[in-house]
From TrEMBL:
<dbReference type="InterPro" id="IPR018060">
    <property type="entry name" value="HTH_AraC"/>
</dbReference>
<dbReference type="Pfam" id="PF12833">
    <property type="entry name" value="HTH_18"/>
</dbReference>
<dbReference type="InterPro" id="IPR002818">
    <property type="entry name" value="DJ-1/PfpI"/>
</dbReference>
<dbReference type="InterPro" id="IPR009057">
    <property type="entry name" value="Homeodomain-like_sf"/>
</dbReference>
<keyword id="KW-0805">Transcription regulation</keyword>
<dbReference type="InterPro" id="IPR052158">
    <property type="entry name" value="INH-QAR"/>
</dbReference>
<dbReference type="InterPro" id="IPR029062">
    <property type="entry name" value="Class_I_gatase-like"/>
</dbReference>
<protein>
    <submittedName>
        <fullName>AraC family transcriptional regulator</fullName>
    </submittedName>
</protein>
<feature type="domain" description="HTH araC/xylS-type">
    <location>
        <begin position="215"/>
        <end position="301"/>
    </location>
</feature>
<keyword id="KW-0804">Transcription</keyword>
<dbReference type="Pfam" id="PF01965">
    <property type="entry name" value="DJ-1_PfpI"/>
</dbReference>
Amino acid sequence: MTRVVFLLVPQLQLLDLAGPAQVFSTAADLGLGYEIGYVAEQEDVTTAQGLPLRAATEWPPLSAGDLVVVPGWRESTVRGDGGPSPAALERLAAHHAAGGTVASICTGAAALGRAGLLDGRRCTTHHDAQDELAARHPGAYVVRDVLYVVDGRVVTSAGIASGIDLALHLVAGRHGPAVAARIAREMVVYARRNGDEQQTSAMLRHRAHLVDAVHHVQDLIDARFTTRLRLSELAAASGVSERTLTRHFTEATGLTPLRYQQELRLERAEHLISHGATAEAAARAVGFQDARMLRRLRART
C-alpha cells in the first residue's frame, strides 16, 4: 500500500488538488494499492474557488515508498507568505530525508523551496511564477516552459492541469505506461503529455491580443488545422479582404495565417512523434502529404 498525502493550504487551487487526486483514486479503484490522505493546519480549508474542504490535522505515518503532494494556492507568484507553515515544511523535509518522494503542483514549488528541497535541483512551476522562484531560490535550476520535472525524489510541475500529467507519469513509472494510459482513458484525458512539452500550446501563445476578427479566424484554424484552408475562405469568414486579414493577423500574432496553421500542425506532430509515431505517420495525421514539409518545419524551428 502506497500512501499519497496532499498537504492543503488556504486558498489552494482546486484543480491542482483534484486532478492528481483523481489519478491516484482511479489507480486505487483498479486495485493498485493507493491510499489517499489530506492533511492541513486546520480541519476546514477554503479553496481559491470558494469550495470548503475538510482535512485531517494529524499526519499519518509515512514510509519511504509514500508520496507527499503540495498543490498550489491562489498567490500568482511565489512572493507571498501563503502556503504551508514552518512545521509543515519541516514535515516535508523530514519525509524526503527519510527516503520519501515530495511533489508540487504550480506555486506549490514555493513550499518545496522554503523546505530547502530545491537547492541544486532542477524544478519548474507555473510560467508566471518562474522568474520569482528562480530569484528566491538561486540554488535551484528552474526549467522554463515544461510541464513537469523529476529530479530524484523531488518532482515539480507547472500550473493547474499539469498536475494530472505529473501524477500519470508517477503511476507510469511504478506500474508501466499501459496502466497510466488506462487511467487517462478512464478520466477522458486526451493524451498523457510528456514532461518536456510546453506549458502553453500554440493555440494559447498567440491569443494575447484584442482583435475580434483575428480571434475568429484563429478559432476556424484551430478547429480545422489538419485540413487545407484557403486564405480567401478565411478572409470571407472574417468579412475583410485577404490582404487586410493577413495584415491584421500578422500585427496581432506575429504570424501569417499559414504560418499559424503550420505551427499548430508542427506542435501536434511533435506530440505524436514523442508518443511513438513515425515522422511519416505524424505528418499525414496533421495534414501534410508526406514528411518532407514536416522535416523542413522541424529544422527551421
